Amino acid sequence: MSDLMSIAQISDKLGVSKQAVYVKLKRPDIATAVKSETVRQGNKTLYTLNAVKLIEQAFSATISDMDSTKVEKIESQLKDAKEQLESTTEQLKNKCEELRQKRANFSCIYYYIITAPRKSTMMQKERIFMMDLL
Q1: How many Cα atoms are found within 13 Å in the side-chain-facing hemisphere of 129?
Q2: Residue 47: which H helix or E strand, with range?
Q3: Residues 49 and 5 sit within 8 Å (Cβ to Cβ)
Q4: How does pLDDT run across 2-24, given as a tens digit for each residue?
Q5: What distances in angstroms separate CA 86 from CA 13, 24, 43, 80, 81, one per listed residue?
Q6: pLDDT tens digits, residue range 107-134?
Q7: Would you call 46 helix, strand, or coil by DSSP?
Q8: In whole angstroms, how far apart are CA 60 and each of 6, 18, 22?
Q9: Integer angstrom CA distances of residue 6 from 10, 15, 116
Q10: Closest by alpha carbon to 30, among 63, 65, 56?
């Protein structure tokens, strides 16, 4: 009986979700091939090692069944996404530089606005004080 596996055990073994295993088992070709390799124990369905091998092959075949046009399309989309990312990164760098320059200009203007009235007030006070001395 140790050569029987549940869906949970199969999913753990293959490193996929239980739902993914169920989806593969619902495919007509897999369902027919695995039907004779299943055993019911109470309310549980268990699968023999042959069934597990068939399910495992179904997962590996999924990747190899992809035709070259799909792969090329995905590669093209990936390339476009990388180019867009590089472009956006460059734009962000430019905007950061613009913000640095504006911040520097703002700091200079702020300093002038804050300190200029103080200086003029101080100068006026000094003049008045000097006039009082005369």
Answers
A1: 6
A2: strand 44-47
A3: yes
A4: 689 999 999 999 889 999 999 98
A5: 40, 39, 55, 10, 9
A6: 777 666 666 666 556 666 666 555 555 4
A7: strand
A8: 20, 16, 16
A9: 6, 14, 82
A10: 56
Q: What per-residue string of b and e applies to 29-49 under the rule 16 or more CB within 10 Å gives b?
A: ebeebbeebeeeeeeeebbbe
What distance in Å separates the CA atoms of residue 14 and residue 119, rounded to the nearest whole number?
78
* CB-based burial label for 10 (10 Å; 0-12, 13-18, 19+): buried
Residue type present at position 2 = S
Decide: helix, strand or coil at residue 40.
strand
| Residue found under tokens 């268990």 | 46
* Paired residues of 38 in beta bridges: 47
